Amino acid sequence: MWRWPFLLLALAIGCAGRQTPDGAQEVVVSPIPVPQPVYPREELSSDLQELWKRVEEAVAVRPPEPPESASQEVIEGWAEGAFRDWVLRRQAATDRALSATKALRTHPLFERGIGTALFGYMYEDMAGSIRGAPVPKDIATDEELLAIYTGALTEHLTPFAELSARAYYACVALFLKLDDPQWGEWAYYCDERGGEVVDTFKLEPPEPEDPGATLTQLVTGR
Fold this sequence. Notes:
By secondary structure, the protein is mainly alpha-helical.
């Protein structure tokens, strides 16, 4: 009987930053469910538009459908194949989005606020996708193995959930500092989603962020 699922090995490899495998399928980009900005998206700075596009592209890298069977052999093959490839492609797309934050160093508060909201959603989606990974039948029926499996899975998804909460809370701080009622919906959106992430993933609320920090610092803490 297996003790450490190959699914977790796939996550560890992906989070280590390996390169995207060749032959990745083209993804379909859909709008991210954030409030409408006060100004039309096409009127925002080109730097923010580029970041927004990259975040959409990262979120569009969807996890594969779970295997039809919950047997150990099938889950192992799925974890080493389709799931591992997804983790690698998603990590590469996330890194590409993160690299776009540097350009927004001196942009207005509302643009940095939008950026943090987008990153909050991107990391929330990543954590939720990992959390939804299938549980092999042999593990689901064994309390000890299930506890090991879920504990290890939580260990791997928690950093993404923490980054999500951090970004959402930074978003709130930025829009509160802006103190413009026109952008109140964004502050409310980030406050609601940040609270949901903290509750869902059983996190400690992040420390208050300095709105004067760069966007990269706000979403990564570095």
